[in-house]
Structures are given as structure tokens and as C-alpha cells.
Amino acid sequence: MDPKLTEVSQLFERFKAAFIRKDFDTCQKFLSQLKVLLTGFRSLPPLFEESPNAIHELTLARDIYEHAVVLSVKMEDQDAFERDFFQLKPYYTDAAGRLPPSPQEYSILGLNLLRLLVQNRIAEFHTELELLSATALENPCIKHAVELEQSFMEGAYNRVLNARQTVPHETYVYFMDLLAKTVRDEIAGCSEKAYDYLSITDARQMLLFSSDQQLSEYIKEDHPEWEVKNGFVYFQKAKETAPCKEIPSLQLINQTLSYARELERIV
Question: What is the DSSP string of the chain?
């Protein structure tokens, strides 16, 4: 075997051993070294040069980047996820005809869709969806993300939160927790606008919490401006502290009249 290929393979085995024992700091160190070593393989994207070990190198590199994506989820690093996913993506598209399908492909593609949904990048979500084959769209990991997006757009927030219990892969839990927070923040913002106050029971049900303790922790961490008193949650304090923008009515009237005079001159 090629000495470079042997070195990468051995280092990757050390990476996987550290990953299994959840030593993620060591994994990051090994991953940085692996990425540098992979630059020495000219068979990888974007060059795709032919060599006796090309298929082995491509398969190994794909496996490394798949582990890198999962590591970024374990580290709760969304920026690293995006970088590693874009490095991995050519192995699912450009190299698809040269490599056997990866068993991790659909779970990682679904994970990326879920990330875009959490980040409210809906246009990119649908762009990625359009690039998937009919077979991919039938995969449970992809269907899970699609159904979540539909529920989110319909405002069926209870379905979004309940979907956490039926995730198709354990790596999805991190993004599902982020999505749950996004949903609750959306509901909280609407509640502030619609009500001056709510009973704790109503607020708990509206924000889809299962206990008053969870509601109290949410208010303490995310909405300290709300006031909890005598069994009610008061939003009035939040409304009072919100900046009120004045509409420059006189300036708008003058501008409108000026436009009208200019139009008369033109006519």
C-alpha cells in the first residue's frame, strides 16, 4: 500500500478510537492533521486524477469527512458543520458514479436540511431538496426534515416539538433541540404582542412546556423582562421597555406634496 495512504489510514483509526471514547478535543487535533494529509491525494475533488489507489483514497476521504460532520454535531459547532458538509458534498455528487453508496449519506443529507431549517434558511432548504433524487426523498431521514418544514410553515408547532421523539438518527437531537427553542421564541414573540398577561397555566400550554418548572427556567434564561406574579406572567413590562419608533408624519406629508407638484409639472 502507498505510504501516504497507510499514514492516513492509521491516523484515521486513532481518530475513530478517540471518537468512540468521546475524546472530542483529541478528535479535532487528529482531524486537522487528516485534512492536511488529504491534500496530498490528487485523486480527490476537485482534481479527480486517476491513480491505482484512487477509489481507496476517495472512499477513505469520504469516510473522514462524514466523521467530521458528525463530530461537529457532537461539538455543537454549526460553523464547523457547514464547512465539513461542503467538503463532503462532492463525494455524494461528483464522485457518485465512481464510489459505492455510503450508508451515512441520507442521514447526513437530512441532517443538513435540518440545520438549514433551524437557521431559517428556507430558500437554501428548498434548493438542496430540489437536488435530491426521488429515491432520496423517500428515505426516512429526508422525509423527517421535509415533514418538519411543512409543520413549521403551517404553524403546527406541537408537531415540530413532538417530532423530537421520533428522530431517525441520534445525531438529529442537537438540531431538534435548537428547533424547539426557535419555535418557542416565535410563540413567545407573538404572545407579547397579543396579550398583556397570561396565567401560568395558559403560558405553559401555549409555549408547549410540560411543567411550570420548565416555564420558569425558560423565562429566567430567555425572557427576564417578563414578570411572574400571583400566578400570572405579565408581558407589559417587556412592551414598555421595547423602543417605540415615531413616524415622521409631517416629513412624509411634505414629501408626498412635493411628489404631487412634480407630477403636475410633468403632465
Answer: --HHHHHHHHHHHHHHHHHHTT-HHHHHHHHHHHHHHHTT-TTSTTT----TTHHHHHHHHHHHHHHHHHHHHHTT-HHHHHHHHHHHHHHHTTTTTTSPPPTTHHHHHHHHHHHHHHTT-HHHHHHHHHTS-HHHHTSHHHHHHHHHHHHHHHT-HHHHHHGGGG-SSTTHHHHHHHHHHHHHHHHHHHHHHH-SEEEHHHHHHHTT-SSHHHHHHHHHHH-TTSEEETTEEE-HHHHHHS--PPP-HHHHHHHHHHHHHHHHHH-
> Could you state, in chain order, the average pLDDT of each consecutive group of 10 residues for the chain (267 residues)?
92 97 97 96 93 95 98 96 97 93 96 94 95 94 95 88 89 93 88 91 91 93 92 75 64 80 74
Which cell is 11 given?
491516523
* DSSP-assigned beta bridge partners for residue 199: 232
Dist CA 159 CA 172 (whole Å): 16
